[in-house]
Design a protein that fits this description.
Elements lengths: L10 H10 L3 E5 L2 E4 H17 L7 E5 L4 H12 L3 E4 L6 H7 L6 E4 L2 H10 L3 E4 H4 L17 E6 L9 E5 H6 L10 H7 L4 E4 L6 H12 L3 E4 L7 H6 L3 E4 L1 H13 L9 E4 L6 H11 L3 E7 L3 E6 L16 E5 L12 E6 L6 E2 L3 H7 E2 L2 E10 L5 E6 L3 E4 L2 E4 H9 L4 E11 L3 E10 L7 H12 L5 E6 L13 H7 L2
Parallel strand pairs: 1-10, 3-4, 3-5, 4-7, 5-6, 9-10, 11-12, 12-13, 24-25
Antiparallel strand pairs: 1-2, 7-8, 8-17, 13-14, 15-16, 16-19, 18-19, 19-20, 21-22, 23-24
Helix pairs in contact: 1-2, 2-3, 11-12, 14-15
């Protein structure tokens, strides 16, 4: 843990940029930006923010693309001690208005169109990156964040309901390990050694994308912007050594490599996260892509909880590092022994402390210093963490609750099923029943009777699907995770 008398976040990141000096740290098309150049950009934007009266405690919304200026603006907003809210590009107008209504003092954009949209959506001041960067650099940027203040609001994916704004303090961000090699857990240390050229795409407002970019630069690599993030083309075009993938994107890459292998010789790490990766999918990815798959587990509320390296058992998310505490609890709150499923409660160095302006839901999740993940899982005898489902992802048959996760895992064991997604459907006799959506394996259409027999044998008749729908791929939420609510609606 860093000394509390030192400057808070982003001091460690700025020190990394200062040490990098003339080394390339960001690449955008033909443009290569060194550590010194990026640090100067941070200094000038921070000076511009201060000149506009922004400082500790002010709410700053960032409506930015993916480039060195966006990365520098995020760091500059934190340097002045603001409460930073990233607004992901492409959101509907009503969601943008909602986000910009969260006590925002100023909106920072990088385009005239974004500025006009922000002006229409809020009464806050609108500043442009171009105007801020023209300020005179303030030398070594000072970091004015107050440890107890909220440093950023990060929105959950909304995969289990309405997105919530996780409030992370400057103390928590200062305790994060991405820019502190002395604090890297073993799995992160191994990953860091492979981050020569990390592909950045989508939005730097993404918690995962931003923190892996920080980790990459700290490890001596460069963040490389992929304006056209199609895979595997982006990997080969940018000679990328690493990228972040969701499970559905990984499945597409594996299928593409089986059909027509691309030259992925530069690839050394795929950080797969967002949803559990079945053991079968995990093994297949390792077989096809080689020892490059890192399977991460974390939440917006917690940051990283655990990460499996290519050497860890497929289907697990690795061994939680020493700085992270994980308790597996029964419904009555009592800890359960190794190998027994329960709900996961965790503590991490950089976890959020609450949901912004939402005390009721905060009390449900942030309890006694622990974060209630609402995920189900267990720790095996070797200390590896296994994810088995979600506490609210259930089917209630004859008033008995059955978790979707175990049903999906059994269905995915059938040789004709590559992926399985279970939703609850109304049933006149039992109240609810199981409807399974499956991605066929090898073009073979799974047989309903065979799947029912498999699930009945393993989990009982109540868990057997009453219907199976074959799909090419699951619909995705904006986060990139499979969206079961859209699957449910597709039945009607």
């Amino acid at each position: 843990m860093p000394a509390r008398d030192a400057e808070p976040f982003p001091r460690a990141v700025l020190d990394v940029l200062e040490t990098a000096g003339g080394r390339p740290v960001f690449e955008h098309g033909s443009r290569v930006v060194s550590g010194a150049e990026l640090l100067d950009l941070v200094s000038r934007i921070a000076a511009g923010l201060r000149k506009n009266g922004l400082g500790p405690g002010d709410g700053v919304a960032l409506v930015l693309g993916v480039d060195p200026e966006a990365f520098a603006t995020i760091l500059a907003a934190h340097a002045v001690g603001a409460r930073v809210l990233g607004v992901r590009p492409g959101l509907p107008d009503d969601q943008v208005r909602h986000l910009l209504g969260l006590d925002i003092t100023a909106v920072i954009t990088d385009s005239d169109a974004a500025a006009a949209r922000a002006t229409a959506a809020t009464g806050a001041r609108v500043l442009t990156v171009d105007s801020l960067r023209k300020s005179r650099a303030e030398g070594r940027p000072r970091c004015a964040g107050r440890l107890a203040d909220v440093a950023r609001l990060i929105h959950t994916s909304g995969s289990t309901g309405a997105p919530k704004a996780c409030a992370q303090t400057y103390a928590a961000m200062t305790d994060a390990w991405a820019a502190r090699p002395d604090a890297w857990p073993p799995a992160i240390r191994e990953l860091a050694s492979r981050l020569d050229r990390f592909l950045v795409f989508g939005s730097l407002s993404s918690q995962v994308m931003f923190e892996y970019a920080v980790l990459t630069i700290t490890a001596g690599g460069a963040a490389v912007v992929a304006d056209r993030p199609g895979f595997p083309e982006a990997i080969t075009r940018h000679r990328a050594s690493a990228s972040v993938f969701t499970v559905p994107r990984l499945a597409k890459l594996v299928a593409a490599q089986r059909r027509a292998p691309a030259d992925l010789s530069t690839l050394r790490a795929l950080m797969v996260s967002g949803s559990p990766l079945t053991a079968a999918r995990h093994r297949e990815a390792l077989d096809v892509l080689g020892p490059v798959v890192f399977h991460g587990y974390g939440q917006t509320e917690t940051g990283m909880i655990a990460m499996a390296t290519p050497a860890d058992p497929p289907g697990t998310v690795g061994v939680p590092p020493a700085a992270v505490r994980v308790e597996v609890r029964a419904p009555d709150g009592a800890p359960v022994p190794p190998g027994v499923d329960g709900e996961l409660f965790v503590r991490t160095p950089a976890q959020a402390g609450a949901y912004w302006a939402d005390p009721e839901r905060s009390a449900e999740v942030f309890t006694g210093g622990w974060v209630r993940t609402r995920d189900l899982g267990h720790v095996d005898a070797g200390g590896h963490l296994h994810l088995t489902g979600r506490t609210r992802d259930v089917v209630i048959v004859n008033a008995n609750l059955h978790y979707a996760g175990p049903i999906e895992r059994v269905l995915a064991e059938h040789p004709d099923v590559a992926e399985a997604y279970v939703v609850a459907v109304p049933d006149e006799d039992t109240g609810e029943a199981v409807h399974a959506f499956v991605v066929p394996s090898g073009g073979r259409t799974p047989d309903l009777a065979a799947l029912r027999a498999l699930v009945t044998h393993r989990l009982g008749a109540a868990c057997a699907p009453v219907a199976v729908t074959a799909i090419e791929e699951p619909p995705l939420a904006p986060s990139g995770k499979p969206d079961k609510r859209l699957l449910s609606r597709s039945r009607t």
